[in-house]
């Protein structure tokens, strides 16, 4: 995301000045994760699923390396006070929340790779006020749809690889290390498993919603839940989501 263009869009709709500056500076220099105090001890051992499904991890790492979302591989820890965080894999679910069929679990795309920052103690160094998030209530979306009546239009979209689109400030890179098959890496973008990832990304999603709302017409709405966006309209919408 271009920080200067984002700033122009937000200032053009009179968005909160402090939040605008936070987002512009974050995309320009990288977002600080909010860790305070001494360097945590880290935890070098990955979760067992990583050794059971190494091809999944390799696929995920290669994908992120190509997109410059992570740095590596390194033979030795590349940064001072380098903290190792355990890697893990979490199976995704179907759109209706059910477990994926067993045959799909051999597909690397069926997993989300996480960085366990509770075990490494990184999350313990982040003040709780920086991790609190208030999400849109789904009931609010349902009530809006009901109010639009029969024939309302609904649409859904999402931001792919949500957190991995958000750069981290270089002063925090040393806290985002991990290892795989004897090599060292670190995240340059927000990882899944970091306590402040949700809070930072929610600020971004809220700003995106505000920008779109400013361009909507009467009886057209947009709501979001983290990286998922739901559009609704009382008649045929002039803007398709």
Commentary on this structure:
There is one protein chain. The longest helix is centred in the C-terminal third of the chain and has 17 residues, at 197-213. The chain has one domain: HIV Type 1 Reverse Transcriptase, subunit A, domain 1 (HIV Type 1 Reverse Transcriptase, Chain A, domain 1, Roll), CATH 3.10.10.10. Helices cover 29% and strands 17% of the residues. With 241 residues, the protein is of the alpha+beta class. The chain has helices at 3-12, 17-29, 48-52, 54-66, 138-148, 197-213; strands at 70-74, 87-91, 111-115, 153-158, 177-180, 183-187, 220-225, 228-233. Helix 1 (3-12) runs antiparallel to helix 2 (17-29). The radius of gyration is 20 Å and the shape is globular. The chain is built from 6 helices and 8 strands, in the order ααααβββαβββαββ. Strands 1-6-5 form a 3-stranded antiparallel beta sheet, covered by helices on one side. Strands 4-8-7 form a 3-stranded antiparallel beta sheet, sandwiched between helices.
Q: Which structural class best describes the helix and strand composition?
A: alpha+beta
The first-to-last residue Cα distance is 18 Å
Give the tally of structural domains: 1
Q: What share of residues are in beta strands?
A: 15-25%
**Fourth-level CATH superfamily:** HIV Type 1 Reverse Transcriptase, subunit A, domain 1
CATH topology, what is it called?
HIV Type 1 Reverse Transcriptase, Chain A, domain 1
Looking at the chains present, what oligomeric state does this protein adopt? Answer: single chain
For the largest beta sheet, what order do the strands appear in spatially?
Answer: 1-6-5
CATH class: Alpha Beta
Secondary-structure element order, N to C: HHHHEEEHEEEHEE
What number is the mean pLDDT? 87
Which blocks of ≥5 consecutive residues have pLDDT under 50? Answer: none
Question: Percent range for helical residues?
Answer: 25-40%
Q: What gross morphology would you assign?
A: globular
């Amino acid at each position: 995301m271009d920080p200067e263009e984002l700033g122009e869009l937000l200032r053009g709709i009179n968005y909160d000045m402090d939040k605008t500056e936070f987002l512009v500076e974050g995309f320009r220099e990288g977002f600080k994760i909010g860790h305070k105090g001494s360097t945590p001890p880290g935890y070098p051992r990955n979760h067992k699923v990583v050794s059971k499904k190494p091809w999944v991890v390799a696929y995920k790492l290669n994908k992120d390396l190509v997109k410059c979302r992570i740095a590596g591989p390194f033979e030795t820890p590349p940064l001072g006070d380098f903290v190792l965080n355990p890697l893990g894999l979490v199976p995704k679910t179907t759109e209706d929340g059910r477990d994926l069929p067993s045959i799909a679990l051999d597909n690397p795309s069926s997993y989300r790779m996480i960085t366990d920052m509770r075990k490494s103690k990184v999350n313990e160094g982040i003040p709780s006020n920086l991790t609190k998030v208030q999400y849109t209530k789904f009931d609010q979306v349902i009530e809006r749809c009901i109010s639009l009546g029969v024939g309302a239009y609904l649409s859904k979209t999402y931001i792919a690889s949500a957190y991995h689109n958000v750069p981290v400030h270089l002063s925090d890179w040393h806290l985002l290390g991990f290892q795989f098959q004897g090599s060292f890496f670190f995240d340059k973008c927000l990882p899944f498993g970091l306590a402040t990832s949700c809070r930072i990304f929610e600020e971004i999603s809220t700003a995106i919603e505000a920008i779109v709302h400013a361009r909507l017409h009467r009886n057209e709405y947009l709501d979001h839940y983290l990286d998922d966006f739901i559009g609704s309209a009382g008649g045929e919408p002039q803007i398709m989501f």
